[in-house]
Please model this.
Amino acid sequence: MTDPTTWLTQEAFDRLTEELAYLKTEGRRTVTAKIAQAREEGDLSENGGYHAAREEQGHQEARIRQLTAMLENAQVGEAPAAGSDEVVPGVSVTIYYDDDPDDTDTFLLGSRELVGLDDSVDVEVFSPQSPLGAAILGHRVGETVSYIAPTGKPIEVTILEVEPFTR
Model:
């Protein structure tokens, strides 16, 4: 079973709390009004507006459930300080794979919500609970760590660089 903890800065926690409050109030009222308006148009079986509004409602309720779970399991902390070489949630990490030192990866350790990323920001994100994330968490630049990949293969990586993530 995976750890449901989500690491968030206070800013991210506040932003997600505001989004949840909006969705539960104004968001629900808006989508309910769209459904009611579409119902008035008649035959629901062939009413595209009605089906679109119901789909929107489903997406919205799913986001409400996601935010509720995330905020209930949030661990709020400070954004990582510049100059630290320790791997903590909220940093950009560059590693290389020991079996191929030319194969490097740079990624955000945390969650997209941690730093307010939307789908337009192209960055790879690893959770601190993922096999790689859990292996490197708390380690420092220059250290080599190993973990077991989901395929069962042991993998060794060396941490090359750690810096606070910036968009």
